[in-house]
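PROTEIN DATA CARD
Card holder: ATP-dependent DNA ligase family profile domain-containing protein
Chain length: 239
Origin: Gossypium schwendimanii
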Amino acid sequence: MAYWSKNDGVPFSFLFRAFDFTAQRVCRNDVNVACNMLRTVMRTTPRDLLAVFHLLANKIAPKHELASDLGVGSGLIITALAEAYNKPEDEIRNQKKNKRKKLDLVEELVMAAGTLGQAAVYNEDRNLEPLDSPEAAEIVKRVHSVCLVYDKLIWAILDDGISKLSSSCSFSIGVPVEPMLAKLSLAESEIIERFNGTAYVCEYKYDGEQAQIHYMEDGKVEIYTRNLEPSSEMFPDVV
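Structure generated from the sequence above:
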């Protein structure tokens, strides 16, 4: 529930309470907590949605932007927390390990962008083609895989709605897309069962570097790794 006026920015105490609900397991469904938080921001202060989503995703900018790496490692953060709370670093480090699985779950949840899609559906009051929450979540996940720039994605949702998102956000030169990575299988029988009678072709997999090559409009070439990080300097011969 919002307790601030529409002319004010989203107070950090609101975000803290939402994160605290998840950390304390007051609510069993992390999806609902994140969804309701984003929905409230959309309804009251849409201009703050980008900043809130970046915070929720633990990002400050897309990976392909060079300025996005602050160079702050976990060791420095642990030292800062230990000094701020007057705790031994070992205690902070142990707490970090205990929270690792939960943090991984939240990161996977947010980066899949499903909560953003659900929140947008609840927020829409336009005369658009109705979508249910799971369908909207799948649309946002699919578009997010080819449009990793949050500001473009979020403003398209706010301006045009979920139903038009696929046409509003698409491939862009200079913005890498998420790779279609394979899913590991333990046995051939598992693969056969997964395809469920569908015809398929197998081929050998060779080890090597995976890269995306973008030929820019100004004639320059940009190469990105499978982690979507710039790597043009690693392949001068290709460039």
